[in-house]
Write a structure and sequence with these properties.
about 100 residues, alpha+beta, Conserved Hypothetical Protein Mth637, Chain: A, 5-stranded mixed sheet, 5 strands
Length: about 100
């Protein structure tokens, strides 16, 4: 019998908008998180940019962010290790509520 280690984490539904003018995150109270990326969806560039942006925003290592479903779709399921769904939503909401200077 093997015992699996439980790693705290969460799963987010993310709507990706590639080729945006600038990168941003919009996190409504319910529904998918919208992430605008400057990268084009070519050769995985947008997916890499998504992982990097979410990792930076959530203050977790890039290796803690994985695209679980939808690698070629705009609507993706993203697994994040190291933070709960409440923490993730709170951090993303605080970032999305900031206005540029």
């Amino acid at each position: 019998m093997s015992a699996a280690l439980a790693v705290p984490g969460c799963r987010l539904t993310v709507k990706v908008v590639p080729r945006a003018r600038r990168a941003s995150i919009e996190a409504p109270d319910d529904g998918p998180v919208t992430v605008r990326l400057t990268a084009a969806p070519v050769d995985g560039a947008a997916n890499r940019a998504l992982v990097e942006l979410l990792a930076h925003a959530l203050d977790v290592p890039r290796t803690a962010v994985r695209i679980a479903a939808g690698p070629r779709a705009r609507l993706k399921i993203v697994d994040i290790d190291g933070c709960s769904i409440d923490e993730a939503r709170s951090r993303l909401a605080s970032i999305s509520s900031r206005k540029p200077a």
